[in-house]
Design a protein that fits this description.
Layout lengths: L3 H5 L18 H15 L4 H8 L34 H13 L7 H11 L12 E5 L5 H9 L4 E6 L2 H17 L2 H10 E5 L12 E4 L8 H11 L5 E5 L8 E7 L9 E6 L18 H19 L2
Parallel strand pairs: 1-2, 1-4, 2-3, 4-5
Antiparallel strand pairs: 5-7, 6-7
Helix pairs in contact: 5-6, 7-8
Bound molecules: S-adenosylmethionine.
S-adenosylmethionine (SAM) binds next to helix 6 and strand 2.
């Protein structure tokens, strides 16, 4: 297969070891996370855990917040604050932050399907090279696959977490080393990986924005507003699982599973300048309270059994 050595360099690493979050910018996240994790693990605090989280369960991807589970990135220490001292608004924001830090990605085959599916909508070559941007680019695999699938197009990734950005850069170097120098040079000139908050990223010249948005539901309105404001008319945006809630975007195609991937992929185009005002906020999926609580209590029991309690 064409580019097979380069493609090989993009695979693996999805089960990577998550380091403990140590950067100062995550201090509040760590503090709240430690308080929640302690409440989850301490039988006397479990009713409080349920009472505090239940009103916000729509912000939790699954039963328990990812950050307090074994694969979370919290350090092994006692919490400096107790859950009772954490205001409700801070807890809700923590859940949003926690969800967006979840790592997930498409398989190489799903990415092949994706680039084949969006190809008919991409700008013609004569209209300039185009710019593909992955917002929340994780380990960089989508950006690097794009560099192979979209010849000539600039391909950028924007990732918040330093360790993921570094893994993406190492992957890019490995990929470049696997190609012949001329091919590697041409790819290196088109690929850019940045450590940055996606809300601060310049997307104004993007022709296709990729969002692996499965865990971004509470962020989607803010993201849609940024994209509607900053992209040029005609620019494309694809999302996974969660639609883009803004009338400035027209839905071009909805790819239901398993046609492209395990989840739905939505492809949108920004309409012309007559964009309408944003639609009122829509309620997110709200899991049933009793079912959620039963699942959490089962998770307590599973935790205790694991500890031999
Ligand atoms: C579900 S992963 C997807 C990774 C990659 N796009 C892929 O599909 O393989 C989402 C990524 O978005 C990153 N992220 C979350 N919030 C972000 C933000 N505000 N700015 C930049 N990256 C962010 C997370 O750290 C995570 O690596």
């Amino acid at each position: 297969m064409q580019h097979s050595a380069l493609r090989q360099a993009i695979t693996d690493g999805e089960q990577h070891l998550r380091p403990v979050l140590a950067e100062a910018q995550f201090q509040r996240y760590v503090e709240v996370g430690l308080a929640l994790r302690a409440a989850f693990r301490t039988p006397a605090l479990r009713d409080v855990f349920i009472d505090r989280l239940k009103p916000h369960r729509r912000l939790v991807a699954g039963t328990l917040p990812a950050g307090i589970q074994r694969h979370g990135m919290l350090p092994p220490q006692t919490p400096p604050r107790s859950l009772a001292d954490i205001p409700d608004a801070e807890l809700a924001q923590w859940l949003v932050d926690d969800g967006r830090l979840i790592y997930g990605e498409f398989t190489p085959l799903e990415l092949d399907h994706y680039f084949t599916a969006v190809a008919p909508w991409l700008p013609e070559r004569g209209q300039g090279p185009g710019h593909f941007i992955d917002l929340g680019s994780g380990l960089g695999k989508v950006v690097l696959t794009a560099a192979l699938a979209l010849p000539g197009m600039r391909c950028s990734g924007v990732e918040l977490l330093g360790y993921r950005h570094e893994m993406a850069q190492a992957r890019l170097q490995a990929m470049l080393a696997a190609g012949d120098p001329q091919e590697a040079g041409a790819i290196a000139a088109r690929v850019q990986l940045r450590q940055q908050d996606m809300f601060e990223a310049d997307v104004s010249d993007a022709s296709l924005v990729y969002l692996y948005s499965t865990c971004f539901a509470p962020l989607m309105e803010r993201l849609a507003e940024k994209l509607a404001r900053e992209l040029a008319p005609g620019a494309l945006v694809s999302t996974t699982t969660v639609p883009l809630p803004h009338p400035a975007f027209e839905l071009l195609q909805r790819f239901d599973p398993p046609s492209v991937a395990w989840t739905t992929v939505f492809l949108y185009r920004l309409r012309g300048s007559s964009a309408v005002a944003p639609a009122p906020a829509r309620a997110l999926y709200e899991p049933d309270g009793a079912a959620w609580e039963a699942a959490v209590r089962a998770a307590f029991a599973a935790h205790d059994a694991e500890q031999g309690a």
